[in-house]
Amino acid sequence: MDEKKVEAIKNRPIPTSVKEVQAFVGLASFYRKFIHNFGTIASTMTDCLKKGTFLRGNKQQDNFELLKEKLSNNPVLKLLDFSQPFEVVVDACRSGI
């Protein structure tokens, strides 16, 4: 991710309206594949929108900060360099995928 985007995420204030929560969760959703337990973390923020008003509590604020941290400190994802040695680790199960 671009350094300017990372800084913008780090400096983003806690949402104070329904639109701001929707915008932040939408931004974070773009990277959901790279954030372990994204749905669980984001659900506290989206659940508070169900009544049409944004009710912010400690859990929503903690998960907002957690998502900001995960978005700005995610490991580097890049294409494999086949000229360099690498190791493949597989997690497999006989009864499922």
UniProtKB/TrEMBL annotation:
User: What residue stretches are annotated with the Reverse transcriptase/retrotransposon-derived protein RNase H-like domain?
Assistant: 58-97
A Pfam family annotated for this chain is RT_RNaseH_2
Domain of life the protein comes from? Eukaryota
Q: Which keywords belong to this entry?
A: Kinase, Receptor, Transferase
Q: Which GO terms describe its molecular function?
A: kinase activity
SUPFAM superfamilies associated with the record:
DNA/RNA polymerases (SSF56672)
Protein name per UniProt: Wall-associated receptor kinase 5-like
Q: Which organism is it from?
A: Cucumis melo var. makuwa
